[in-house]
From TrEMBL:
GO terms for molecular function: methyltransferase activity. This is Probable methyltransferase At1g29790. Keywords: Glycoprotein, Membrane, Methyltransferase, Signal-anchor, Transferase, Transmembrane, Transmembrane helix. Belongs to the methyltransferase superfamily.
Amino acid sequence: MGSVSLKIGDGTARFKRATICTSAVNGLMLFSVLTTNLFALYAFTYNPNHNASQNSQNPLQLAHKNISLITEQVSLIMEEIESSQKKLTQIEKELLGYETIDLTKPNTPSELKIFLQRHSLPLGKDSRTGITEMVASIGHTCSKSMDLLSKYMDYKVNGPCPDDLGLAQKLVSRGCEPLPRRRCFAKTLPKLGFLHPFPASLWKSVSDKIVSWSGLSCKNFTCLSNIGKKLGKDCVNCFDLSNGIENQRFVKGKGKNDFMIDDVLSMGDEGVRIGLDIAGGSGTFAARMAEKDVTVITQAFNVEAPANDFIAARGLFPLFMSLDHRFPFYDNVFDLVHAGSALDVGGKAEKLEFLMFDIDRVLRAGGLFWLDNFYCATDERKRDITRLIEKFGYKKLKWVIGEKVGSGKSELYLSAVLEKPVRA
Ligand SMILES: *[C@@H]1O[C@H](CO)[C@@H](O)[C@H](O)[C@H]1NC(C)=O
Ligand SMILES: *[C@@H]1O[C@H](CO)[C@@H](O)[C@H](O)[C@H]1NC(C)=O
């Protein structure tokens, strides 16, 4: 039970192939060395006029001829060497199995090479999974940020990791997700003595000392409460639990677009037990849900704020990932998914669609999708999101389009509770 079964049969073939490959590299190298030498010998002994009696040209002309001949031969040799090197690099790349990330570049940190190295299974193909080698997972877009990635993987093995959470976040936001693993000790935070027991932890202020401010412009929560809307529409001052606004959310509505948690929970057909909150800011949605015995995972990216540390300090489950990444959850698992304006990644219709399909995937049939104050910048945007939702065939349990006056002009918001249908 639980053991990996390995079949010996196919293994020998694989190893033979690897040996042939290695010999091919050696052969090619030998070949290029030999040809190089032969060319040199040829160039220096070559005499275009075998008949000496015909040598009636003057010596200067001859010398000129000799020199140009040599130059020609040398450039031929150089070409040959270059093409051999290209072939070698190609073979090396194929052996490493990475086409997009060029590990043969001179400044590639050895840790990156070691992490990405493919390892053949010692006994060949695994009969259960069909795999023949162990591979490490890394975002394919990492190849576009090789300079940052190399910096990230340049550290002392078994030593302390560099203080580079900002660099990690930068890489992830450029699509380098997942990041490669590292063999260094991440900086620890002295959380002991600062944490509160659950459920009191849900509403206690979090100390500046137990979150990492690495890579953030603010270095304390006082600073954070002064940057206002910079944290996004769904999280205006959401890290300030004492301002009297954050702890009213989901229990006291300010407008018809704000649904109450009790109302929504009563709509769930077979009960709501587990949920996912997308771009959940400081985790307040999960905190309110925790009081109703609903376990909610809060997806949060540390944009300008130490969201993951904060959510964890409240005794809630933070999920550090960008919204470009496929959700690391199985199909049909959640009873509830909650999302707001953050859903609209850059206003691209296709991007929103990919995200919506992934939300639909992780939500079970009969589960609820709570779209909470989705900001519709234009009427067209409102039509887009409406059309998109209708395509999924969800039952509209609640549907409210309301206006809010924000910064002088009135803004359009959509709030909805939708039930995922059973599809054939
Ligand atoms: C040109 O090369 C030939 C041999 O290939 C040699 O006999 C001759 O002296 C050379 N001429 C000069 C001017 O170097
Ligand atoms: C908070 O950080 C700001 C700079 O970001 C600094 O000016 C201020 O003194 C800090 N306040 C406290 C209470 O540490």
